[in-house]
């Protein structure tokens, strides 16, 4: 490609824009070229930085053997001292005042720098370029005069702006698309911007993501409203609550969410969320009792028991657990019942390192004899094993188990007593 | 063990060069701020940085103190501050707060921000808005390829997945193109290029554009790597969401391999210290078992221990040097493995995840049983790990047209009750990304579809928006799996010790779709004959081949294949392709935006910060 010629052309094409006369000689080709060039220079701004850095150490394309790898390697340990623990000491020397954001957002200029090839034109924006670019360039130690500010300011007609956007989209680089969108957001009324983006999905998604990231919630909600995306609107609004720390404010905020156009099922969840917070705030009293919560939020039995059991076990509140499984029948007799099955109760208790006495109690409640025996063996509930063998009249198994208990222990003695007992009719 | 490399396997290029390059560039950038300075590092960059440089290198270049970028005021007293960060808005706000606090206090310092791997306009816009543009100088550290292993390059950009596949933001495409450009500059051009997916196509186009713009010196070079294959993660969510059963994948699912190493807490090491273990090909024992189905690992390790005992008995015959060698290499690795192993045993006991998924895969054959998956999660929805129940999503995923509304609702309600109502945002994201769907009456869908396609005029976007294409993709999974024979018919037991196909990575039940696509295309050297699959994947516009006649490519280089996973790849996929390589005499090199697994994918969908 003949660069010099191309650059000359660019010079003439662009110089006409110097005087802000978009309308003379408005042929599409030159316009297209202009937006193409602008988009490219936006990208160059990113690319050339790399290349420059690479060039400095002569990396570009050069066979790697030529790189000076003379940087000394110290055989230090691969330090993990990155934690910066020093921070913890001697704090509070600053007041961390957050300055208010400027209300008129960057309206004066948004200059995007790019590097021109040697002998390129001086654009209008060069004249406007001020300190940021200049102080930037020497920082990197680059030769003077090699930089220019590529400004998008010259894209003033809607048609030019849209062309610029389309060019950016066809380049695929999201960073450039966002850069153009930032410019469009600043120079177009939001109605026009929204209208044009509605039919440009790729660009639209970039704008939505950008607004989410910078936290421009107001514009984001306006956009969803314009697009008639009511559910997204509601969800976006609801999402705000994650940033609110104060429980009371959070609750108040959630209240504002209740009427929003969520899907039918989400409406119920939002209502639940609000009710839940309301209750959390009233900490004391029957409202916050687990049983009450269970009723209000229609939590299934199994789920409730699993949660309560694990929580109580962690606190080693064995009596509560006992109560959890105790049911009274209509005659007033108490009975132990576990909707999840006692074998799972035992597993969960074991996971939470419950003592053997407690485990034993629940192993005993396992209905299936084989499961019971297995669990008892696994968790060393000797008494249960021994009693079960006795009930099964399984002499052989009892004999086998004798080797598993400690010598001279009470368990061994118990087994011996049983084995020598004439009361039992062993089946084997 | 079944995994020695073939004798005729081609040599891998030396990727350690990339580390040196990154390090040199960082040093160059640090020298741009001469004199003593404090360095603020973003947490996510610490592990990658650790892999290429160490503290003493930083100290040599006048870095005084190191701080972590976090939400706390910085207490540095240095006159020069340097920030090494990812291009994120929150980092810009952090820096702005710091600089503005200095300004208020009447303090002047020098500030430099080094963005890695590149800077974004949105970041600069924030600097401008906060009134500190010009007060800070900005630079880029194009460190986008970290060699995690001899055949594995990671861009360490987990956010790529969410940014592109959920938000539709194409900001990382340039980074990918730059990385590929760097590779072709260093390792010569790629004569054969293949790809599938919208992102793959865009990255490819931008990359080619970069090459064309530069008078690329790589053009005259001999290619070192014969093929490149680009693949979008959304071509195959299923594989990424499956529970992993190959050893390395299992370790990743259980302990999270971070930047090529894993931290074992006190409960694993059975001492009060935690232990950081680097997992790569240099660890001999590990490299022997990493690709194995976990059921083989126990046997292997105990065999190994017996051998070791035997060797140990022979130690009397060794001289000191041999002995040293023996102790440092074999014994050390083995001890670690043993430690790992003892823990694995107890973990596995209650880890019933696989038992859920794999039968689920088996059941795919009979259509009506798909609802059975739902039974397990119902009883299990309490576990400490947030991502756990949601990782059942793959099972749900298989349902041809999404969940029936009743099941969807009950699953969601139980989840929200267990983990907090704010997770309804997570569900909304899952649906938006096409990872979870509810059956919709057919006519509503088509009406909506036609409405949307009328609205969309973006050329690049094609006629259908992403949301709808992924919707269609999912419902096609059954057809694709039939077409590509992803669920092999098993006669009798599948011998996991002697794997016969890539399905071994999922206990013989399922061949990873992503790997099968790659296999098929490489066999044909094109997409020819795969039209139906491409159509079912909704990728007619986004499947491409670009073959240049290349005389200079050696036969050795033509057996090296670089696979680029856009949006992350799993260790299971890596193992499967390593297996394929051994079968066919290829060697695969993996380039991924990040290592992923089902938990990571699900977390990426969450709005709630842990």
From TrEMBL, chain A:
InterPro entries: Spe-39, Vps16_C. One of its GO terms (biological process) is intracellular protein transport. Keywords: Cytoplasmic vesicle, Endosome. Residues 73-94 are annotated as: Disordered. It is found in: Cytoplasmic vesicle; Early endosome; Late endosome. Residues 157-258, 292-399 form the Vps16 C-terminal domain. GO terms for cellular component: early endosome; late endosome. It holds the Pfam family Vps16_C. This is Spermatogenesis-defective protein 39 homolog. The gene is Vipas39.
Automatic annotation (TrEMBL), chain B:
It comes from the Eukaryota. Keywords: Protein transport, Transport. One of its GO terms (molecular function) is protein-containing complex binding. One of its GO terms (biological process) is melanosome localization. GO terms for cellular component: clathrin-coated vesicle; early endosome membrane; Golgi apparatus; HOPS complex; late endosome; lysosome; perinuclear region of cytoplasm; platelet alpha granule. Pfam families: Sec1. Transmembrane segments: none annotated. Gene3D superfamilies: 3.40.50.1910, 3.40.50.2060. Belongs to the STXBP/unc-18/SEC1 family. This is Vacuolar protein sorting 33B.
